[in-house]
Design a protein that fits this description.
- This is Tf2-1-like SH3-like domain-containing protein.
- InterPro entries: SH3_Tf2-1.
- Pfam families: SH3_Tf2-1.
- By secondary structure, this protein is mainly beta.
- It folds into 2 domains: about 1-65, no CATH class; about 75-120, OB fold (Dihydrolipoamide Acetyltransferase, E2P) (Beta Barrel), CATH 2.40.50.
- The chain is built from 1 helix and 6 strands; from the N terminus they run ββββββα.
- The strands form 2 sheets. A 3-stranded antiparallel β-sheet has the order 1-2-3, with no helix packed on it. A 3-stranded antiparallel β-sheet has the order 4-5-6.
- The longest helix has 7 residues, at about 110-120.
């Protein structure tokens, strides 16, 4: 999955960044981390949200290991559910997979035989 699939920062929180300067009427230059040096540092205002610090709200941030093409390796964490999809002439076994860096609401249904081939350790001997 590409890091910038829905835009530079998508709709995921990736960190707090200092605004260095206002470039245009609706664009700002941010001070990004060195690990994000290949990302253009000028963003439209609709991508930014003001930070309202709340000491009771603690964010657990896992740093992504991004490649130079702004992609990262998806790895499954857990098989959540199994089901069989019944078509007219055949059945397809599916598994619901929880992926690293994603929440429960973003779990996907994958074909069981594909997951067995790629990740046999989730299915046992």
């Amino acid at each position: 999955m590409r890091f910038g699939k829905k835009g530079k920062l998508a709709r995921r929180f990736i960190g707090l960044f200092e605004v260095l300067e206002r470039v245009g009427a609706v664009t700002y230059r941010l001070a990004l981390l060195p690990s994000l040096s290949y990302v253009h540092n000028v963003f439209h205002v609709y991508l930014l949200r003001k930070c309202h610090p709340d000491p009771s709200h603690v964010l657990h941030w896992e740093p992504l290991e991004l490649r130079t093409d702004l992609s990262f390796k998806e790895t499954p964490i857990q098989i959540l559910d199994r089901r069989i999809k019944q078509l007219r002439s055949k059945t397809i076994p599916l598994v619901k997979v929880l992926w690293q860096y994603h929440g429960l609401e973003e779990a996907t249904c994958e074909r069981e035989e594909d997951m067995r081939a790629l990740y046999p350790h989730f299915f046992g001997p």
